Amino acid sequence: MNDFLIIGGGVIGMLTASQLAEAGHGVTLVERGRCGQEASWAGGGIVSPLYPWRYSEPVSQLARHAEREYGVLAAHLFDTTGIDIEYRQKGLLYLRVDDGERAFAWAQRQGWPLERVEASFIYAKEPWLGEGIHDGLWMPTLGSVRNPRLCRALRARLEALPNVEVVEQAAVQRLVVERGRACGVETVQGRIAAGRVILCGGAWSGALLAEHDVALPVRPVKGQMMLFTTPPMPGGRQLLERVVLADGRYLIPRGDGRVLVGSTLEQVDFDKRTTEEARDSLWQSAVAMLPALAECEVEHHWAGLRPGAPDGIPFIGAVPGLEGLYVNAGHYRNGLVLAPAATRLLVDLLLERDPLVDPSPYRPGRRRARSAALCGLDRGQGDGVDDVVDQGTA
C-alpha cells in the first residue's frame, strides 16, 4: 500500500504525483483512460489567464507563482526525460480590449509588464495580421507550452520514478471509506488501497464525491478548438510567432508553424462532440485575425471539458467530512496555467510544510459563491481532447 493514491492523470494529477514521489513518498496514480488525454491535452497551453485583470486575487496569486515556476519545470523535465515541452516566452498581443484602464491598474498593482502599443509595433511583431489594427496591449513576458508534450514529459517522468505506480484504463467506481476515512478506491481493475487519497479528476470530480454526500460544485464546460497547418513564410519566419487575442478568441503558434484557434464556452454536461457551428465560428475568428489562414488546411478540430467552479477559483485541500481525502480540482480554463503552483500548494499541505500561499481561499467547503459567478463566464476569460491526435507534436 502506497502513502498516496491520486485519482486523475491530467497535468494536475501527474505533477502532484511527481512532487510527492520526489519528496520520497510512494504514490499510486489511477487514470480512467490514458494519462494526459482529457482537458490537459485539449487546452491551448497559454501560461496565463487570458485576461488576467478580470480574475480574482486567489487566481492571480497562483498564476504569478506558476509563471515563475514554468521555466524551472521545463528545464527539469528536459533534463530528466529529454522531452522539450516548448516553453516559449514570446509575449501576447491584445487587440480590441475594452477595459484597458482596468488592465493597467491591475498590472501596476501586480508589478506586471504591460504596455499600450501602436499599429507599427504590432505589425512589426506579426506582419500577417489582418488590416485595420490601430493599437493594442502588449504583455512581453507571457509564455506558452505545448501541452501535449508537457503531458508526455510528465508521464515519462512518472515512469522513471521507482516509487510511482501508474494504473491506466482503470475508471474509479467509488471511494473506499472505512470508519469515516478514505483509504482507497474501487476501480474496474479492482480495489487499490492507500494511506491518503487525492482527487484530481477535473470535470468528473464533483460526481465522484456526490456519491458520498459531499458537494463539490465543479461541472464541465466544453471548449472546442482547431489546429491549422501553415506554410513557411519569407525570411524564415512563421505565419504567427506569438499569441494574439481579440474579442475573447486567441491564436497560439507552435514551434513547427502550426496555429491553434480557441475556444468556445458551452455548458452541455459531459458531451464532447464537436459541432459544425463551432467549427465555422472558430474558422471565422481565426481568419479575421490572420487572413492567410483562409488558405491553410484545418488539420484537426476537437473538444475538451474544463472543470468549472464558482468564481473560477479551484478547490485545493482537505475534503470536509471525509478524513484522508484531499482534492485539487475546479481550475476551469486555467488548469495548465496554475498547475505548478496549485500542485505545490496541495503538496505543501499534505507534507505539513509552510504553504506557498494562504490556502484559505481555495478550501473545499468554502461558502458557495453565487451561481451566476461560475467561472466568470460572462467575461470571456481564457484556456481550453480526446486522445486521437497529438496537436502536431510528432
From TrEMBL:
<dbReference type="InterPro" id="IPR012727">
    <property type="entry name" value="Gly_oxidase_ThiO"/>
</dbReference>
<keyword id="KW-0560">Oxidoreductase</keyword>
<dbReference type="GO" id="GO:0043799">
    <property type="term" value="F:glycine oxidase activity"/>
</dbReference>
<comment type="pathway">
    <text>Cofactor biosynthesis; thiamine diphosphate biosynthesis.</text>
</comment>
<dbReference type="InterPro" id="IPR036188">
    <property type="entry name" value="FAD/NAD-bd_sf"/>
</dbReference>
<dbReference type="Pfam" id="PF01266">
    <property type="entry name" value="DAO"/>
</dbReference>
<dbReference type="InterPro" id="IPR006076">
    <property type="entry name" value="FAD-dep_OxRdtase"/>
</dbReference>
<keyword id="KW-0784">Thiamine biosynthesis</keyword>
<feature type="domain" description="FAD dependent oxidoreductase">
    <location>
        <begin position="3"/>
        <end position="349"/>
    </location>
</feature>
<protein>
    <submittedName>
        <fullName>Glycine oxidase ThiO</fullName>
        <ecNumber>1.4.3.19</ecNumber>
    </submittedName>
</protein>
